[in-house]
Write a structure and sequence with these properties.
The protein contains ten helices and 18 strands. It is an alpha+beta fold. Strand 6 and strand 7 form a beta hairpin. The longest helix is centred in the N-terminal third of the chain and has 47 residues. It starts with a helix and ends with a helix.
């Protein structure tokens, strides 16, 4: 009996003790959870107190977190890292954090290439390249007839496989490194390994680099004394190239003009305004406003303007500066817009040098047409809508068969007849 009572007492004692321990552990767990949650809540509140990018950069919690991540990379990442790349992408991340696709950070290499592109002059081989997402390689889509690439076995449609015997990795379709390897000092040589045709045959070519000027303006006389000028982009060389071709067509007796802005992604505002002055009356070409309401106007003097029938070709890839020109022509009713709705980029960027060979490009203002319309996200509807008829497989482009150009010719003739 005594043994049974002792067993019972031991059972209840253990049960009570276990219950008490469970209560204690539960309380401790809740306390830890509350403390942890409070700490997280406080951290979130701290983040919510950030009111500017400067607040984020100055935050000790952000700096501690960056150090922690850096330690984890050094300790845990399975391959060697490039510290300069880490630094570059910290800055890129800050600009990406704005959510703006057009703002960004330029490393020294990227800034050098950007400045060359903006000037329209560079030392290279004279090809136009484009990233092919299907092949995940860079494809040659144009060969400058005046460049060294045209004198060797390099053709449109070739894929660049290697540069000087080495594959150049493409990060997120960024071709900057590849371009920088192909460009170089005039007189030096570069070896390209190309892939050609459906069987991707390897072809090696050696090309001597040469100082080149990007051809941004082309043109010719079409039927019925109608001039044709295509502007591919608005860069440093574009105004002079346009002036040369424009005067050439005028002297040849052009009675109407087709200005082709299809596929033109834009460029420098002052350049497009200089060209716009050939067509617009005295007054505004465009104006800009920043977030503080500061306004900057871009006028033209209205002297020595074309004054004859004008049709401007546009499409969904006509953007930014080309939309400034198209919008001004439309608002001032000095020509007809023909094609399809434009891209709709009504914002402008400025490039700010950081003093160490790097720079940031920041969207700083919206631009407006002379009538005060901002077309960002909307685009400009053409006066006459004509969709482009795509080429059939294997068919080569011929300007005489371009249905939008044929429609523009017809429109110019109508304008001539109505005068």
């Amino acid at each position: 009996m005594d043994n049974q009572n002792q067993i019972k007492r031991s059972f209840w004692k253990g049960t009570v003790t276990g219950f008490c321990m469970a209560v204690v552990l539960t309380v401790l767990g809740i306390s830890v959870y509350i403390l942890t949650s409070e700490r997280v809540r406080l951290d979130l509140n701290a983040a919510e107190r950030f009111s500017s990018a400067q607040d984020v950069a100055d935050s000790s919690s952000v700096q501690k977190k960056m150090k922690k991540i850096a330690q984890l990379i050094d300790k845990q990442y399975f391959e060697e890292i490039d510290p300069e790349e880490i630094e570059t992408y910290i800055y890129k991340g800050m600009l990406a954090g704005t959510g703006d696709l057009y703002s960004g950070y330029y490393s020294k290499e990227e800034l050098k290439q950007f400045m060359e592109d903006a000037s329209g002059s560079y030392s290279g081989i004279g090809v136009t390249m484009q990233y092919d997402s299907t092949m995940q390689m860079v494809k040659i889509v144009g060969v400058n007839e005046k460049g060294p690439a045209a004198k060797v076995d390099i053709k449109e449609g070739d894929y660049i496989y290697k540069v000087d015997g080495k594959e150049i990795p493409l990060e997120n379709a960024d071709t900057t490194k590849l371009v920088s390897k192909i460009r170089g000092e005039e007189g030096t040589k570069v070896e390209l390994t190309l892939l050609r045709g459906d069987d991707r045959k390897e072809i090696k070519v050696e090309v001597e680099r040469k100082s080149l000027e990007v051809e941004t303006v082309t043109g010719q006389m079409l039927e019925s004394q109608i001039g044709y000028i295509k502007i591919s982009q608005f860069e440093g060389v574009t105004a002079d190239q346009f002036e040369e071709k424009f005067e050439e067509l005028k002297k040849a007796g052009a009675q109407g003009l087709i200005l082709d802005l299809r596929g033109n992604p834009g460029g420098q505002v002052d350049i497009v305004c200089e060209i716009a002055g050939k067509f617009l009356p005295e007054g505004l070409v465009t104006y800009m406003e920043d977030k503080y309401g500061n306004r900057q106007e871009y006028p033209c003097d209205g002297e020595d303007i074309w004054g004859k029938p004008l049709t401007v070709l546009v499409d969904g890839n006509s953007a930014s500066a080309s939309e400034i020109l198209a919008g001004a022509v439309h608002d001032d009713k000095v020509g007809t817009l023909l094609g399809t709705k434009t891209f709709g980029k009504g914002i402008v960027q400025q490039t700010i040098n950081l003093g160490d060979g790097t720079a940031v490009k920041i969207t700083f203002a919206k631009y407006y047409t002379p009538n005060g319309e901002n077309i960002h996200g909307k685009g400009i509807e053409p006066d006459i809508e004509v969709a482009y008829e795509e080429l059939k497989d294997g068919e080569e482009y011929q300007i005489e068969k371009d249905n939008q150009i044929l429609a523009a010719i017809a429109n110019i003739k109508e304008q001539m007849e109505s005068r």
